[in-house]
Amino acid sequence: MEEWKRAMGFFDVYVDDRYIHTIDTYFYGSWGSHADYKLLLTNGTTGHHTVRIMKNVYSQGNKFIILGFTVSSGCYK
C-alpha cells in the first residue's frame, strides 16, 4: 500500500490558463468510499474551455487517475 501511495502525486489544475487547485491524487478512503471531486469552473461562459493538468513542482509521485468529468449547462427556469 505504501508503494501505491508514494506513486501518486500532486497535480495543479488550470482552466483556460487560470490556476484552479492543486489535487492530492492519493485516495485516502477504502473500497466502497466515495471518490473525492473538485469543482473546476462555476459561472463560466458557454463554449470551449481548456483543462490542463500539470505535475506540481514539489510532487514526487507521477500517477493520477481521472474517474470522469461532468459538464453541465446549468439549470433553466
Descriptive terms for the model:
3-stranded antiparallel β-sheet; mainly beta
Total tally of structural domains: 1
Shape: flat
Instruction: Output mean pLDDT.
Output: 78
Strand content: 15-25%
Question: What is the number of strand segments?
Answer: 3
- Low-pLDDT regions: none
Number of helices: 1
The largest β sheet comes out as: 3 strands, antiparallel
Spatial gap, N to C terminus: 49 Å
Summarize the structure in words.
A three-stranded antiparallel β-sheet has the order 2-1-3, with no helix packed on it. The relative contact order is 0.33. The mean pLDDT is 78. The protein has 77 residues and is mostly beta strands. The chain contains one helix and three strands; from the N terminus they run H-E-E-E. It starts with a helix and ends in a 22-residue tail after the last strand. The protein has one domain (2-55). A hairpin with a 2-residue loop joins strand 1 and strand 2. It is flat.
Note the topology:
Elements: H1 2-7, E1 10-15, E2 18-24, E3 51-55
